[in-house]
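The records we work with from here on pair a chain with its fold. Taken together, the tokens spell out the fold as the letters spell out the chain. To see the layout at work, look at the sequence and tokens printed below.
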Amino acid sequence: MRVTKRTNIAVRLLMYCAAHAPRQVTKAEIAERCNASENHLAQVTHQLSLLGFLRTQRGRNGGITLERPADQIVIGDLFRQVEGNVPLAECFADADNTCPLVEGCRLRLALADAVEAFYAHLDGITLDALICDNDDLMRVLVPAPVSCTAR
């Protein structure tokens, strides 16, 4: 199984917002810290806003914040909604499925069970669990301010 680029960016974006909560953050600062293009971030931000994960505010004082607390954002739910119906294998696709073994293939059933187990495991993880007490992550997402010396 492979996580799509969109889901990868979605998780980075949410972790960044959670690390900076309740402050509004900008696409530019997220792009810099999370190594993502602002164009991709705009698309993912829009989707996460529609799905109820983010709140966005346009304009001069605009920015992005979490729509709900990090401990109420379940990673399994996020993955299901962002990944959508991306087929794991050709036999899972509604269209373009040319596999002649579909009717009797037990591998298809095993893969379906594995995907459900994957999501079930992620259902036990919240956004808060990903960032809470994670000093290594915080050093990346919230760098220490540059100290200035008096002249």
Q: What stands out?
A: The chain has seven helices and two strands.
